[in-house]
Design goal:
It contains 3 helices and 26 strands. With 402 residues, the chain is mainly beta. Bound molecules: 2-acetamido-2-deoxy-beta-D-glucopyranose (7 copies). One 2-acetamido-2-deoxy-beta-D-glucopyranose binds at residues 261, 263, 266, 268, 270.
Length: 402
């Protein structure tokens, strides 16, 4: 379908990619392509949350070197967050029966990352939110995320990618922060998608801003319906087992808690990822309020298989004041701090997190042991209450270095 691929721009960027080290092993050229998602139709106050199966993606046995995206309009202009808030996009990998329709009810096997959450929670390969425009995702040589290995794809299946895009059009809304934090009262939502009443303690979060929901508008506000796209850029190299070191992806969730299940000697660790949490307003006044109102949350999680840390980044929502991943004895593995915008233009929207800082330790310098207990810390500014916020830590680890 034409609109799935309005612009496919193949650039051979052999020498344009900044290399962190002065090696030039680039016989294997970095390829880059820009794709557009299917059309996403927004009206003022409307939530769009789509699962887009089988989106355009590089084919073949490859190593992914970076992935990032942003919302654009039909003319290809970047859309600022104060018009359409990008709650998140995530990229998931699946094996799908060949020649099946791209609907959501087809038999698919999710190819999960190595992360800890139960079931299919947070099993994406890449994912970002409002910070998408100023967050680095590139993977230094000789590392990469392997995909499309024909030897791993079950017979009769093909590898496909699913993009979940969740955006909220906040043009003309009564309360922008409330709509972006998915406050249930603003969406007039009291039940979950199965029609069961939500707990009265549930003030907001993803359950209240499903696809198609409407956030309350200012009286008499009129705004046009418009079509947007997630424009995403993938960089990759052809697979080369001699020269590429594959990476494992872990995602840690601050709300996750671990419990050991010992059923007649069979030990397993159970997880309980809530994904979202609320930050209470701090109990302080005056100067103390300005200084001390930080909500610090921590959780302790065990990484089954460690490795050398190659990349790390956190994910937080507005109000976020940074997140840190610690190893044993409190050593800092990576700290990721938000950048807030200061203006109006896309990529610099005041009040929004427009970027998260990343870690690129010198490969070999940060090693995580198998079974090491890690601590995730997520800090929020609690001078005001925040609903449905997140604290994730995403890392890439290699089992050997070059
Ligand atoms: C599914 O999506 C792919 C990729 O966009 C497309 O080539 C294919 O025609 C679609 N299949 C159906 C049955 O719509
Ligand atoms: C799957 O969804 C398609 C449309 O999205 C529908 O036509 C088809 O009947 C569904 N199949 C099953 C088995 O539910
Ligand atoms: C909110 O939802 C209830 C029932 O679910 C409906 O009766 C009411 O009209 C809605 N209010 C608004 C402002 O949409
Ligand atoms: C503990 O693990 C066993 C399998 O080893 C499983 O059947 C059981 O449901 C688990 N217990 C809990 C409380 O989840
Ligand atoms: C698990 O339970 C068995 C008894 O069923 C006990 O002998 C063993 O020590 C327990 N292991 C741990 C790690 O708690
Ligand atoms: C704030 O803290 C003080 C002392 O710890 C307590 O007496 C007061 O009730 C608290 N106020 C609120 C609104 O929680
Ligand atoms: C928290 O946010 C308030 C209001 O946005 C601001 O005045 C304050 O300086 C912030 N506090 C910290 C510790 O960043």
């Amino acid at each position: 379908m034409i609109q799935w691929c309005l612009c496919l721009l193949m650039l051979l960027l052999a020498n344009n990619i900044p290399h962190s080290e002065a090696t030039s092993r680039s016989e294997n050229k970095i390829k880059s392509a820009v794709f557009l998602s299917p059309k996403l139709t927004f009206g003022p106050g409307v939530v769009v949350n789509k699962l887009l199966y089988n989106v355009d993606f590089p084919k073949g046995h490859i190593a992914i070197k970076s992935f990032n995206g942003e919302l654009v309009d039909e003319a290809g202009n970047s859309v600022p967050l104060h018009e359409t808030y990008l709650h998140h996009w995530v990229l998931e990998r699946y094996y799908q029966l060949k020649d099946s329709a791209n609907s959501s009810n087809v038999t698919r096997i999710q190819v999960k990352n190595s992360g800890l959450c139960e079931g299919s929670f947070l099993r994406q390969y890449f994912g970002l939110g409002s910070e998408t425009r100023k967050t680095e995702t590139h993977i230094p040589d000789p590392y990469g995320i392997e995909a499309g290995n024909p030897a791993e794809i079950p017979y009769g299946y093909e590898e496909i990618w699913m993009l979940n895009v969740h955006g909220i059009d906040t043009r003309g809304v009564e309360n922008t922060l409330g709509c972006t934090e998915c406050w249930c009262d603003l969406y007039n939502v009291t039940e979950n998608i199965n029609g069961q009443p939500l707990s009265p303690n549930y003030k907001g979060g993803l359950l209240c801003c499903n696809d198609g929901k409407q956030c309350r508008l200012r009286k008499n506000y009129k705004g046009a319906i418009r079509n947007l796209y997630l424009r995403y850029t993938v960089k990759w190299v052809d697979w080369d087992s001699k020269n590429i070191i594959p990476l494992n992806i872990y995602i840690f969730d601050i709300t996750d808690t671990e419990r050991v299940n010992n059923t007649s000697g069979i030990i397993s660790i159970q997880h309980n990822c809530q994904i979202e949490y609320d930050v209470q307003t701090c109990n302080a006044t005056g100067v103390a309020r300005k200084k001390r109102c930080i909500d610090a949350k921590t959780t302790s999680l065990t990484i089954p298989t460690g490795g050398y840390l190659i990349y790390g980044v956190g994910h937080q929502h507005a109000g976020g004041a940074g997140t840190t991943l610690y190893g044993k004895h409190g050593r800092v593995l990576c700290s990721s701090l938000p950048t807030y915008g200061k203006g109006k233009e896309a990529g610099n929207e005041a009040g929004y997190i427009v970027g998260m800082s990343t870690c690129y330790p010198k490969p070999g310098s940060v090693k995580i042991a198998d079974g090491e207990k890690l601590v995730v810390e997520s800090n929020y500014n609690s001078t005001q209450e925040h609903i449905g916020v997140m604290g994730l830590f995403y890392i890439l680890v290699a089992d050997r270095i070059a």
